[in-house]
Specification:
single chain; about 475 residues; alpha+beta; Alpha-Beta Plaits; 4 domains; 19 helices; 19 strands; about 15% strand
Length: about 475
């Protein structure tokens, strides 16, 4: 998600020429990599935990600045996401089937069922204490009161749990994404962008890209000015997307376009100039020097909607993903992606050797990409997507157990109440049933006690043997 200008940490200084200049503060050096490593460790440790248990203040303490913390969290949003559990993830299969037979598939269905039951038996009001009143309803559904309480609020925002939907990025990748997002935010929020001393080829390329995206362009000799347009609230961010996209696509064909550039940025009480330095291209490409631009698919949206209405699209959703995205392959400017479950696949038209080379770079970087050849229609795309990608949801419960096992290894022992909270189990009996097959080298769950690491179990056993020997000697 693009940064807000207010979330960009920056310094504004006035120089001898009377102008105010904006200097963004990027994450740099070994210290930044260490900070990001700590943030990644915290996210991995919180997998499976509810949003209400996530302490954002911890991240602020790691980075020492709320804006830096928010920026890093935004960069991690493609990897870590908040998601509500489904009934199938917190219930045994037979319980899911039993609720489905009553027309109850979601928390909303369950709440309506309970409302109907209360209206039928109590004129819309619970008689007595809530817990006592809900017990007969829970028994009727063959659920424990604790499990009923959990299911009723399973879709609440505060009960969403943290899941990892992508491979864990390296700290260096997050630092690069943060730096790009900062520069991108400045470009998007500028009232205009000047590119000076352009060659004839550069002027031709820039004019074509600005025309493609409806960006006003004026000239003063060989100098170009790309104009942004403020919305009714005075913000340039909405139309700034077109300006930044035009710039990046032009840079893909004319790498030297921004060698002498300046952006005028409107601040709350004034304005300031931002002058990209010689590292600008390295920053926006993550050090790769590559900007990969997907070819257009002008008729795909209409054809996709027709197919969806006539035959269905196997659960895939077509996403207009025009947001420039920094990846391990470089800066990617896509046209469309398709999403099902936690799987997201970029569509990449291939009609010439250059586009084929770009596709190879993307695939070698591990980015899920589907080549689209001339003549491929929506039906062909859906079939290829379903054949190569399952579109399943990630195993949130498995990730939660993995994170808790790692925490137990570090702490030695985690009390039962914390285990129930971390794994979203309603009762100790549920925890015992679901953790009974936990491998011994991962840990041991003891009902009424908690989760013990292998080292902790070994220590307890040695202590018990010593106690037995002392007892026998006595």
């Amino acid at each position: 998600m693009p940064f807000r200008l207010a979330d960009v940490k920056k310094i504004v200084r006035k120089r001898s020429d009377g102008e105010r200049y904006l200097h963004p503060q990027l994450l740099e050096g070994v210290g930044a990599l260490t900070q990001v490593s700590l943030a990644l460790a915290y996210f991995n440790n919180r997998l499976g935990r509810r949003r209400s248990d996530f302490d954002t203040e911890t991240l602020v303490q790691i980075f020492g600045d709320a804006r830096l913390a928010r920026g890093v969290v935004s960069c991690l949003a493609a990897t870590y996401q908040w998601r509500n559990h489904t009934f199938a993830e917190v219930l045994e299969a037979q319980n899911v089937a039993r609720l489905l037979s009553r027309g109850i598939a979601t928390s909303s269905d369950l709440r309506l069922h309970l409302f109907d039951a209360v209206n039928a038996s109590g004129s819309g009001f619970l008689a007595g204490a809530r817990g006592e009143a809900l017990q007969p309803l829970a028994r009727r559904l063959r659920l424990t009161p604790a499990k009923l309480d959990q299911l009723v609020a399973l879709d609440a925002d505060e009960n969403a749990v943290l899941v990892r939907v992508r491979e864990v990025p390296t700290p260096a990748q997050i630092v690069a994404q943060y730096s790009f997002a900062v520069i991108d935010a400045i470009v998007r929020h500028s009232s205009h962008l000047e590119l000076r001393r352009l060659t004839a080829d550069e002027r031709s390329i820039l004019a074509a890209r600005c025309a493609d995206h409806g960006v006003p362009l004026t000239w003063a000799g060989t100098d170009a000015r790309l104009h942004n347009v403020a919305d009714s609230f005075g913000s340039y961010a909405r139309t700034g997307f077109r300006l930044s996209r035009s710039l990046y696509i032009a840079l893909s064909s004319a790498p030297g376009l921004a060698r002498d550039a300046a952006a005028l940025v409107r601040l709350p009480a004034s304005h300031a100039l931002y002058k990209p330095d010689k590292t600008f291209r390295d920053t926006v490409t993550g050090g790769t020097g590559r900007i990969l631009v997907a070819g257009p698919l002008p008729d795909l949206r209409q054809e996709w909607e027709r197919l969806r209405a006539q035959r269905g699209v196997a659960g895939w959703r077509l996403v207009s993903s025009g947001e420039p995205t920094l990846t391990r392959a470089g800066l990617v400017v896509p046209a469309f992606s398709c999403q099902r479950g936690d799987e997201r696949v970029m569509l990449w038209p291939v009609s010439n050797a250059e586009q084929g080379a770009h596709l190879e770079v993307l695939q070698q970087a591990g980015i899920a990409t589907l080549p689209i050849t001339p003549g491929d229609g929506a039906a062909t795309i859906v079939a290829a997507l379903s054949d190569r990608w399952g579109g399943d949801r990630v195993d949130a419960a498995g990730q939660a157990v993995e994170a808790l096992v790692g925490e137990a290894a570090a702490r030695g022992f985690i009390p039962e109440a914390e285990v129930l909270s971390a794994l979203n189990y309603a009762t100790p009996a549920e925890a015992a049933a679901r953790l009974r097959d936990l491998p011994a080298d991962h840990g041991t769950y003891i009902a009424g006690l908690g989760l013990c690491s292998p080292d902790f179990v070994a220590t307890m056993r040695r202590g018990l043997r010593r106690a037995q020997r002392r007892s026998s000697a006595a």
